[in-house]
Design a protein that fits this description.
Four copies of one chain form a homotetramer. By secondary structure, chain A is of the alpha/beta class. Helix content of chain A is about 35%, strand content about 20%. The mean pLDDT of chain A is about 90.
Chain lengths: ~325, ~325, ~325, ~325
C-alpha cells in the first residue's frame, strides 16, 4: 500500500503516523520526493482501513498495490479452473451452453424443453424453482416442487441442472442439484456466500447490477475463503442510464475477468437484454469475446411462460443460435 | 395498464390478443386512434407480465397506470406513518437524530459515545454488531456480543437502539433491539424481508446502491405484505460514475418518497459521502430538504475506529452539527 | 401521445385541459376506464411539452407513442442506408474496417500506418488532426497540417480518410476529407450538427458518453433535418460506475440501432476500452453482434504515440485481428 | 506521478523505462519495496500519457499526485474568487439568487418576470435566448431578439442578466450581457471555452450530465488558461439510473468543489429535478449545503411557457421560496 503525504507535513506529524502504522505490524518504507513524501507500507495491509488513512489531514492519497482477492486471483493461480458436472466442462478452453426456462412450471414443460435443448446441443439445463421477484405479489416459483421436476428432467435427459438458491436454510433441497446459482441481487448476501463456501457444489455466481468486477471477485473470494473453489462467474448486465435494453451487457468483462482471475466466465444475454430479439446477436458476441459459456432462456411456449417470457427463445430459435455459436466459437479459437 | 398496438395490426391479431387478455381475467377497453389502437386493461393487472406483452410483434408499448406497491402508497394511506420507539418519534412532522459508531467495539466505547450523543440531543443510538464487509478478510463485527453491549448502552442512557441484521436465523438476538436495520446490500434479499415482515419490530430499510425509488418501495412492500407496517426508509447514496465521494447522495429522494409514500424518510450522510468533512453540510441539506431524520456516524476516537473511521464525526463535531440541524429544521418548518 | 388523467379529476378540469390541447391544434380522443381516463392526442404532438403536461395536477402520466425522430427512423425508411467513399461501402450488408492512429504526427508515421493497415485489409484510414483533450495543457493536434498529412497518405494509398471536426469555422479545411467525424463530446453541439447538415459529406457521429440511443438518433436527425442524409452511427462506450475499462462498450446498441434506424452502425473498441489487450476480443464481439464496421486505433510505434498509445494496436496485431474479423463476419452472415 | 512496477520486472526492463522517462525531461526517484518497486516521477508530468504508461507490460499501476488543474485549484489560490456584476456579488461569503424564465418569449413576459423576481429579492435575471434542444424540431429560442428583450428587462429593473451562448460566432450579441452561460451539453466544447477565455465576461459554466468534478474543473481551466478568471461553477444534476426526477442533483458537489477550487458554486434545482414540486426543497437543501447561489426558473404563466414550464415556479412560489432561502442561509452562516 502506498500513502502519499501532503506538502507541508511536518516531521513530527510524519513520525506520529509512522509510529501508528508500525503499531499495525507494518514495515514503512519512506521515499522523499521534491513535492511530496511517499510511504510504502509492507506487510498485511489487508487489515488497514484505506478510507481512514485517506481521511487524515496530512495524507494526500492512498493506493493499494496488491488486490485484496487472493484465491480467485490469476496472479497466484495461473492455470484456468475447469469445472466438471456430468459430461459438461466449463473453463479451460471448453465451451458450454446452458439453456432452459426462466421458471419451472410443469413436468411436461421442463422435460420437453430439456429434450429439445439437449437435441440442439445444450450441455446443462437451467430452470428457476425459487424466483426472486421485485414484487411480493408476483409468482415466487414452485420451490421444492420445482427442484423435484428439474431432477425428473435430469433423469429423462442426462443433462446436469443449475438452479438458484435464495436462502441457505433450503440447502438440503439442493442435494442433487449439479450447480447452485446465486442471483445478482444476492451477490453481496455474505451470509449466503459463506454457507455455500462450506459445500462442495459448483456455484454459478451472478454479478450484481451495480457491482464492479473487483467486488464481484471479492464475492467469489467469500465462497472460496470457506473452502469451495468451484465457482463460475456470470455477467448478466449492469444498470446504466439507458433503458432500451433491460440492462447493459458488459462484454468487456470477459477478457477482463479472464485476466484477473482463473475462474470461468459465462454470459447471460437473456436477463441482460430482456428482449428475445437481442439475445442471438449478444450470445454470438459473447462467444466472440471469448466467454467460456452462454446461458440462454428457452421456453417451449414463451407466450404462456409464467415469467420472463419476453426474453425466452423458443426451441427452434435456440437450435439455430446454438449452431451459429459453434461456428463463431470455432472461428475465434482456431 | 395501457397497451398500444402497432400500426398495421390486423383485426384477427387484435382479437387473438384480446381473447388472451380476457383469459387472464381482465376487462379490455378498446380505443381506436388515427395511427394506433389503445387497449385499456382493467382488473388485477399486477399478474400480467409487462415485458412479455411488450415483446409481442403487434405491441408498440405497454404502460402501467397504477403502481404495484399498495400498502406503502400514499395514494391509499394519505396520513404520515409515525413510528415510536422509547421517547423518539419518526415521521409525521417529528425530527429525529440517530447517532453512534459504525461498529460496536467495547463496552466503554459504546457507552461513552451513547452518553455524548445523548447529551448533544440524539434520539436514538446506532451501532453495528453484524457488519457486511466487501472482503471476507475484514472485521465482521462482534455479532451477538455487540448487541449485548448496545443493550448495556441503552440501559445506561435510555436511548433506543438500531442495529443491522444480515440473516433471519439470528432474529432471536434482536429481541430487545428497538429498530432492526436492513443494509443496502440486502435491500432485495427477499427472504430476509419476508421474515422481518412477520415481526412487529420497526425496520430501518436502506436503499440499495443501484435501486430505483420504485424498487425501494417494493422492498418495503415485501415487509408490509407480511403484516409489519413499521418501516423507515433510509437513503444512503447511490452509485454513479463519479468517485470524489463514496456514493452520490440523492436528496431529491426526500420529497419524492414523501410524495409516493406515507413512510418516514431518514438520510445517512456518513455512508453516502464516506468523508467526515462532507457529513455536516449534507446533514444540514437533508434537514432543509425535509427529511424526517438524519443518521450520523459518531466515534469517540475516529483514528482508532475498527471500521469506517474516515466517515465518523467525533462527539464535539456532532454536538455542533446537532445544534445547527435544529436551527435549520426550525427555519424550514416555521 | 397518450395522457392518463388522475382519479378524482373533475369534468370541468378535464374540459379545461382538452380546450387547451385543442388550442394546440390537436385532436383529443377520450376513453373512460374504471379507474382512470385516457386522452389520446392526435396531430403534430412533437410541439407539445411532455414535461409540462406531466406536471399538471390532474395528469397521472404522459406517454409518447411515436418517436420524435423521423428521417433516421427505420419505420419510415425500411431500407438500409449505404454510404460509399472511394472503394469502401458502409451499411447494407457490407463490412468495413477503419484503422489508423489516434493522432497524425508526421508524414512518415501516417503514410507508414496507412500502407500497413491497407495491406492488412483496412478500407478507410483514420487519424486525428484536431484533438479534443480534457486538459488545455495537453497536445491539441496538428490541426490543418494534420489534415494535409492525411491527404498525403490518401494519395499514397488510395484509402479514403476520416478525421474529426471540432468547430464548423474550420469546414474549409475538410474539403477533401471523405468522412467528417463528430466526437462524443460534441454529439449535442447542435450548432455544429446543423452546419454539417448543410454539407454533403458523410458524417461519422459518435455517441456521447452518457447519451441514450434516442438522443443519439435525435442528433443524427439534427444533421438530416438540414439535408445531409449520409450518417454513420458510432458506439464508443458509455460511462458507468465501473472503471476497469475506460468506458463500458454497449454492444447491444448494434441490434437496437439497426432496429430503430436505417443508418449503418460502427463500433470503436479502442476508445471504449482504452486498453490494447481488450481491443481484439471486443472488435470480434462487435462483428459477431452484427456491426457494419469496426474502427480501430493502429500505430506503428505505440510506445511513442503522442496520445492514446495505450489503446493502439501495432500493425502486426491489427493484421492478425483483421483476419479474425473476416472469419467471424463470414461465420455470422453465412 | 507514481508508477508501480510489477513483480518480476527485470533490471534491464526497468532501466529501459527509466531512460524513456528521463528523455521526457522527468527526474525519476526509485524506491524498492519487498514486493514491488516504485518510481516517483518529478517534473512536468502533465505531458505524460498516464494510460500509455499504465499499459506497459511491466507497469502495475500509475497514479497522479498533483491535479492537472492549476488556475482553478484552491491549493494555489486559497482565497475565494468573488464575481461582481452590477449590485450582485457571487462567492466569498455572499449569497446570490438568480431567477427568470427558461426562454425569453415576449417583452411583456420578461419584464413582468424581472420585476416580480426583483421584488422577491432576486439579484440576477436569467432567460434563454439561444436554446439547446434535443430535437431539431423544437423551439430553438428567439436568439438575438431574445437578448434584446433581456436587455430591455435589465434597463427596466437594473438587474444584471445571464443567458446562454451556443456558438462563439455570436459573441458580439453578448456585448451587454453581464454573465455568459455555457450549457451542460457544451461543457466540453473546448473551442467555445477557449473563445470565452479570451473575453473578460463572467462565465457561468454548467457541469455536464456525466462529467466528474475533475473534468468540470478542467473545463474551467480551459477558460482560465486563456486569461479569463471570472468563472461561476453550476451543478445542475447528473445522469443516473433512476428517472423519478429528470436528473440526480449532486449536492455533495458543493463542499467538494469548495474544497478543490476557489471558484463560486451555484445550484440549479430546476433543470436538475424537472418538476416544480421538487424545486423548493432542493433549493433550500442547496443553501444549507453552502452553495454561493441558487438559480431558479420562474415564469409568470408556467402553463403557457414555450419550454420547460414543468419546472418553473410562478412568481408567488418564488417569493415564498426566496424568503425561506434567506432564513436557511442565515441559519447555516450565523
Amino acid at each position: 500500500m502506498i500513502t502519499v503525504l501532503k506538502q507541508g507535513t511536518t516531521q513530527a506529524q510524519m513520525e506520529h503516523l509512522i509510529a501508528w502504522l508500525r503499531a499495525q505490524n507494518l514495515d514503512v518504507h519512506i521515499s522523499h520526493g521534491h513535492d511530496y513524501t511517499i510511504l510504502g507500507l509492507i506487510g498485511d495491509t489487508g487489515k488497514i482501513d484505506m478510507d481512514l488513512l485517506a481521511s487524515l489531514d496530512i495524507v494526500e492519497s492512498v493506493k493499494r498495490v496488491t488486490e485484496p482477492f487472493k484465491q480467485c486471483n490469476r496472479q497466484f493461480h495461473p492455470d484456468d479452473t475447469v469445472i466438471t458436472v456430468g459430461n459438461a466442462k466449463i473453463g479451460g478452453g471448453n465451451f458450454c451452453m446452458i439453456a432452459g426456462p426462466c421458471s419451472v412450471e410443469t413436468e411436461e414443460q421442463i422435460i420437453e424443453v430439456a429434450e429439445k435443448v439437449k437435441a440442439a446441443g445444450a450441455d446443462i439445463l437451467r430452470g428457476g424453482a425459487f424466483k426472486p421477484r421485485t414484487s411480493p405479489y408476483d409468482f415466487q416459483g414452485l420451490k421444492g416442487e420445482g427442484i423435484r421436476l428439474l431432477l425428473e428432467a435430469k433423469k429423462a435427459t442426462g443433462l446436469p441442472i443449475v438452479t438458484e438458491i435464495m436462502n441457505a436454510n433450503y440447502l438440503d433441497l439442493f442435494a442433487d442439484v449439479d450447480i447452485i446459482q446465486v442471483g445478482a441481487r444476492n451477490m453481496q448476501n455474505f451470509d449466503l456466500l459463506k454457507e455455500l463456501g462450506k459445500t462442495d457444489k459448483p456455484i454459478l455466481l451472478k454479478r450484481g447490477l451495480a457491482n464492479t468486477l473487483k467486488e464481484f471477485l471479492m464475492s467469489a473470494e467469500y465462497i472460496m475463503s470457506e473452502g469451495n473453489q468451484n465457482i463460475i462467474l456470470c455477467e448478466r448486465g449492469i444498470r446504466t442510464f439507458d433503458t432500451y435494453s433491460r440492462n447493459t451487457l458488459d462484454l468487456t468483462a470477459v477478457p477482463a475477468l479472464h485476466e484477473m482471475s482463473h475462474l470461468p466466465v459465462v454470459i447471460d444475454p437473456s436477463h441482460a437484454t430482456g428482449k428475445v430479439r437481442y439475445v442471438p446477436p449478444m450470445a454470438l458476441a459473447a462467444v466472440a469475446a471469448g466467454a467460456d459459456g452462454v446461458m440462454v432462456e428457452v421456453h417451449n411456449d414463451p407466450m404462456h411462460a409464467w415469467c420472463d417470457g419476453a426474453q425466452s427463445l423458443n426451441p427452434e430459435q435456440f437450435a439455430d443460435l446454438a449452431q451459429k455459436m459453434r461456428v463463431v466459437r470455432e472461428a475465434v479459437t482456431q
